[in-house]
């Protein structure tokens, strides 16, 4: 059987992660529209071609951001399948910090199947490996139980509470701050 080079930056048994491309716009925006009820009121990803192009452009071109699509693997060939969700690292600071802030969202067809947990583990490993980051943070609204459960399951620890932290859907929203360092992540894997 011939060997096919993977399209993924990292891969697990069921998903692989890869960078955003402009060509992903049609599938991404269709998945966003299908997932509107799942995302609201926590998340408002781009749901039109123009909004996606601007969004993806920032993730592709801005060195302080990195965007990853979590894709289901096609079992026979281990090639990229449907986009299950997305995970972005924003506010990447180098130097003495080596830190970034994560944001993520699952799409409705993939919710509750463990695909985002696998994808988040892959992104954290990639961030602490090739990206050479030391710390990752997640800011989550306190009532977003699914997002908090994902952070906790992947080894992030609750570090604090910030009132009126992020402007979302017309208001400043409270957030819990969750974080993990490369040392804690490595300890979980040992």
In short:
The chain is an alpha+beta fold. The protein has helices spanning 25-34, 36-39, 49-61, 115-128, 145-153, 182-189, and strands spanning 10-11, 15-19, 66-74, 79-93, 99-106, 135-140, 157-168, 171-181.
Keywords:
single chain, 190 residues, Aminopeptidase, 31% helix
SSE blueprint:
Elements: E1 10-11, E2 15-19, H1 25-34, H2 36-39, H3 49-61, E3 66-74, E4 79-93, E5 99-106, H4 115-128, E6 135-140, H5 145-153, E7 157-168, E8 171-181, H6 182-189
Helix pairs in contact: 1-3
> What is the structural class?
alpha+beta
CATH topology: Aminopeptidase
The protein's oligomeric status is single chain
- Taken in chain order, the helices and strands follow as EEHHHEEEHEHEEH
**CATH superfamily heading:** Gcn5-related N-acetyltransferase (GNAT)
Classified by CATH, the class is Alpha Beta
Topology, number of strands: 8
* Helical percentage: 25-40%
Number of helices, counting only DSSP H or I runs of 4 residues or more: 6
Strand content: 35-45%
Radius of gyration: 16 Å
Q: What is the straight-line distance between the termini?
A: 34 Å
Poorly predicted ranges: none
The neighbouring-strand order within the major sheet is: 1-2-3-4-5-6-8-7
Shape: globular
What profile does the largest beta sheet have? Answer: 8 strands, mixed
Q: Which CATH architecture is right?
A: 3-Layer(aba) Sandwich
